[in-house]
Design brief:
- The chain is of the alpha/beta class.
- It folds into 2 domains: 183 residues, Rossmann fold (3-Layer(aba) Sandwich); 115 residues, 3-Layer(aba) Sandwich (Rossmann fold).
- Helix content is 41%, strand content 18%.
- The strands form 2 sheets. It has a 7-stranded mixed sheet with strand order 3-2-1-4-5-10-11, sandwiched between helices. It has a 4-stranded parallel sheet with strand order 7-8-6-9, with helices on both faces.
- Helix 2 packs across helix 3.
- The longest helix is centred in the middle third of the chain and has 22 residues.
Amino acid sequence: MGKINTIGILTSGGDAPGMNAAIRAVTRSAIANGMRVMAIYRGYEGLITGEVREFHTEDVSGIIGRGGTILKTARSQEFMTPEGRKKAFKVMKKNGIDALVVIGGNGSLTGARLFAQEYDVPCIGLPGTIDNDLSGTDLTIGYDTTLNTIMECVDKIRDTANSHERIFFVEVMGRDAGFLAQNSAIAAGAEAAIIPEDSTGADQLEQFIGRGIRKSKSSSIVIVSESPKCGAMYYADRVKKEYPEYDVRVSILGHLQRGGSPSAGDRILASRMGLGAIQALLDGQRNVMIGIRNDEIVYVPFSNAVKSDKPLKKDLIDVMNTLSI
């Protein structure tokens, strides 16, 4: 791999708190190492349409505490086609970009992997997703902030649940991963978490009803991972039909989980990973995601990061069940 003089940086997919901190770290680390930085707006879509401009140190001043992403983000269907990636490569060449730093989740890093394979472009990924579902890293950028946002919301919902002696089903994001649901349930003192990783085959609602509704409790909070078929509304409807004696309400937290100023943890994580991305390029690495394991920065091949299902620690389920009595 030849010397890298200019890097491109983009954010892709769903936004996550801490993305701006990562943009700042990548930009300043690259400049400190003598590289030019080309900022690409609106993710892969902007790479196709040529929404590119050079970033300097001052362009990332004061953004470390801002939520969202100053580069904007989009989901690009065109980039998932060979024709779209060909257009993107032409824009890269036109702007003299030698390597690409992509901040995003599973789909974003899958796109980077395809692009790198087809055009021999060095690509480095930063795990920017609130779901914490990328393998090879203990944490992803945005997860800690979102966890705290959910906890604060559930604390407020608890006040109403207690006042009215209700069961509240609170739906949180996470797609096919239950990290947000399980850990926010523990943090907020919820009575149960219904997550996709619970593979016991048992009916999670019946388990909750069996142990979680007692005269000693005036309310119950159940955190549910979002699902097209078995979300919070599904379980609330079941309770209304199967256990009509209970007063049930649903709260779907939705996109408020994505917003807000990033936590200290996410700012530090994003800063370390941003620095790690430039160091990876200097080390001759390509087509890897920057991860963190046991508080150390690691390089994770894209194939490992996006293909494997990240396991949820089963002892977390035991913690939840024991402490909800």
